[in-house]
Design brief:
This protein is of the alpha+beta class. Helices cover about 55% and strands about 5% of the residues. The protein is built from 27 helices and eleven strands. A four-stranded mixed sheet has the order 2-3-5-4. A three-stranded mixed sheet has the order 6-8-7, covered by helices on one side. Strands 1-11 form a two-stranded antiparallel sheet. Strand 2 and strand 3 form a beta hairpin. Helix 6 packs antiparallel against helix 15 and helix 18 packs across helix 23. Bound molecules: zinc ion.
């Protein structure tokens, strides 16, 4: 739902329906008694003291919110945490079994690698004993940068270990030839969550910057620097990062695909940034041959890196490399490092305590060996029947969106034909990959876990580094199977829904259509599909190429209506006195709005096809649709998280993701008997009409 960035049409085929109890019963057997089964619509969460026409988010979730306490280790609670908690119990059982069988499995076996990886992470006593020792060779590499010619090879070596320094190299889809990869160079290299944290004036921002410098000082101190050196180095790193931040695009600027589209030949890169030896860089990162062309996503930023490479003292660069190496390794070193890193980063989330070690280790294992885990996870949780049922809902959504496209009055037939073509060619991945990643080249060893993390980074780097010029792998997944998330990728024109997200509360084969079409249909499938046609996605064509396929009049209409969505969300309060950033959240808000309209239409089609059920718990199918939608956004956030999200997150707070789109649609007012003038009924002249 949620990675903004990034179909063949199937008629409603006869489905092999699994008996409704089987998935629920199967899941229940895997979970401890303390974990209450999740329902797509749970009437126990409704607060009937609130009017549905005043604040529907509060109506649908108020009883839950009133008794929820966010656990100390979390920044929020709600659907995503509840589903992740349940998925993590299953994943943990897979990992525990892998650990138990390490000795009996042959060397090189993927399950053995999983077990060894997780066990080395769980060895907290080993991490305490080792202290900083495991990464001393990395720090020695940084110390060896005593000549400027060593700077770029060391920068490359750190990037390959997964350390975020200076800029990012990424082999990604060529925006103008979506069938092939090319080199992308992106801005990066900051220690604070966004460039705005360096640029924003005011006391609150000053305080965060000061805390960052203090944090760096303490990290350097833990790594053995004396206080005077640590203080000087921390200030120098802050100055270097501020220079990088000043040349970085804002998140709003980055949402315009044209703003990051600057393909140039290699010679052009040499003249854009002539202090950097690009041939040395590309050799150091393991490219077999220098690339012919490069997309410099942010040219101003790369020029800034170039001038810093030329002129900034090497002592500052070494301190900067150390800072980023220490902060990226800190979570897996001994307690003083872990605690220091947590104390600093938790101010952005509001978490009061670390997650239990097994959860931290499980998440890192999922990030690094996700597809080895995914196979076992699917076998335990996601039978083929569940996949077929989820696909059927998604296919109804596709059909409903097609109907809407065919009947839009504002769109010309020329643009409409291309939009329909894009919809027809939109791919969908549901549940799990058809082809699993091969981990045979990944080395995993006993001993310090941070070294296994470094090996996993190097494995992933080698796997993709030489992709530029090669055909795009259309089978690849961007997130792992147990993940509670989904995405639309405009360059591949496909939407992806992993099994981890296709569980209760998102979806339950045993639930009624109203509930499933409100949640999986609107919040997930309708939302992702609409991303292909939001203010960002609409710039890509059916094949995933960045190409303007719109008539000028249709573009103008879209832009004008999008302004109404920006104005609507800018009017909502995020936290304290901060308002939602209507421009940053525009794509997500268009996707939510389109998701609701499409999901509702799909429900009507399903009711016509399958028949209208009796009231369930006193609610009509339409009312349960809107409850399913609103409860899919059942989230309780800490204020610290909302403050960070206003800067970094393209999604508006969940309350507005519910009340925003629902107050735009007359079918919601009709379902709950709301009248003009009610807060959940916005005046017609302020309502955007897009999809
Ligand atoms: Zn989204």
């Amino acid at each position: 739902m949620r990675l903004a960035r990034h179909l063949w049409l199937v008629a409603a085929a006869a489905l092999v329906l699994l008996s409704p109890e089987s998935l629920t019963a199967q899941l229940a057997k895997l979970l401890p008694d303390s974990m209450r089964p999740l329902r797509v619509v749970d009437t126990a969460w409704i607060d009937k003291n609130v009017s549905a026409c005043t604040d529907f988010f509060q109506y649908a979730n108020g009883a839950w919110l009133a008794r929820d306490t966010i656990p100390a280790a979390y920044a929020s609670s709600g659907v995503a945490r509840d589903m992740s908690d349940r998925n993590e119990v299953v994943v943990r059982s897979v990992l525990d079994a892998a650990v138990a069988h390490i000795e009996s499995l042959p060397a090189g076996n993927a399950t053995r690698k999983l077990g060894t990886f997780y066990a080395s992470c769980m060895d907290s006593a080993g991490a305490e004993r080792a202290g900083l020792d495991p990464i001393r060779p990395w720090l020695a590499g940084i110390d060896s940068v005593t000549k400027r010619s060593r700077l770029i090879p060391e920068l490359a070596a750190l990037q390959m270990l997964g350390v975020n320094v200076a800029f990012r190299y990424r082999p990604d889809v060529d925006a103008h030839d979506a069938a092939h990869y090319m080199v992308w160079l992106h801005q990066g290299g900051l220690g604070l969550p966004d460039r705005d944290y360096y640029m924003r004036p005011g006391a609150a921002a000053d305080s965060i910057r000061q805390q960052y410098v203090e944090h760096l000082k303490r990290l350097f101190g833990l790594a053995g620097e004396d206080p005077a050196d640590a203080a000087a180095h921390a200030q120098a790193v802050m100055a270097l990062e501020t220079a990088l931040a000043g040349a970085s695009l804002t998140r709003v600027e980055q949402r315009d695909p044209a703003a990051t589209d600057h393909p140039i030949p290699l010679a052009g890169l040499d003249s854009l940034a002539s202090s950097i030896s690009w041939s040395s860089y590309f050799r150091s990162i393991g490219l077999d041959a220098p690339p012919q062309r490069v997309n410099v996503a942010e040219p101003t930023f790369i020029r800034r890196v170039d001038s810093l490479v030329a002129a900034t003292p090497l002592e500052t660069w070494r301190a900067y490399f150390r800072a980023h190496t220490l902060s990226s390794a800190a979570p897996w070193l001994s307690s003083p490092f872990v605690q220091e890193q947590f104390a600093f980063t938790s101010q952005f989330t509001g978490a009061r305590a670390l997650l239990p070690r097994w959860k931290r280790c499980l998440r890192e294992t999922d990030a690094d060996l996700g597809e080895a885990l995914g196979q076992a996870y699917v076998a335990k949780t996601f039978p083929p029947e569940a996949r077929a049922r989820a696909r059927a809902v998604i296919d109804d959504i596709r059909a409903a969106f097609g109907e809407r496209l065919r009947h839009l009055t504002w769109m010309s037939d020329v643009t409409r034909a291309q939009a329909l073509d894009k919809l027809a060619k939109m791919g969908e991945k549901v549940g799990y990959p058809d082809k699993w990643l091969d981990y045979s080249k990944l080395v995993v060893a006993d001993g310090p876990f941070i070294l296994n993390v470094g090996r996993a980074s190097a494995f992933e780097w080698q796997r993709v580094v030489n992709r530029p010029g090669m055909p795009v792998d259309t089978t690849e997944w961007g997130i792992t199977v147990p993940t509670v998330n989904a995405y639309y990728d405009p360059s591949k024109n496909e939407m992806v829904f992993p099994a981890g997200a296709l569980m209760p509360q998102t979806f339950d084969p045993a639930a009624d259509d109203g509930a499933n079409y409100g949640s999986l249909g609107a919040s997930w499938a309708g939302h992702e599909l609409t991303h292909g046609f939001d203010d960002e996605g609409r710039h890509y064509d059916a094949e995933g190429n960045l190409r303007d396929w719109w008539t000028p009049a249709d573009s103008a209409h879209f832009a004008e209506q999008a302004k109404l969505v920006v104005a609507q969300f800018t009017g909502y309060l995020q936290v304290d006195t901060l308002h939602v950033n209507g421009e940053l959240t525009l794509g997500e808000n268009i996707a939510d709005y389109g998701g609701v309209l499409t999901g509702y239409d799909a429900l009507q089609r399903a009711l016509e096809r399958d028949g209208r059920p009796d009231l369930i718990d006193g609610y009509t199918p339409e009312q349960r649709f809107f409850l399913g939608y609103a409860q899919s956004w059942r989230v309780h956030n800490r204020p610290e998280r909302l403050r960070t999200r206003v800067t970094v997150d393209p999604h508006a707070p969940e309350r507005w993701r519910v009340n925003g789109p629902l107050s735009n649609v007359p079918v919601f007012a009709k379902a709950f008997g709301c009248e003009p003038g009610d807060p959940m009924v916005r005046p017609a002249d302020s309502v955007a009409h897009i999809w």
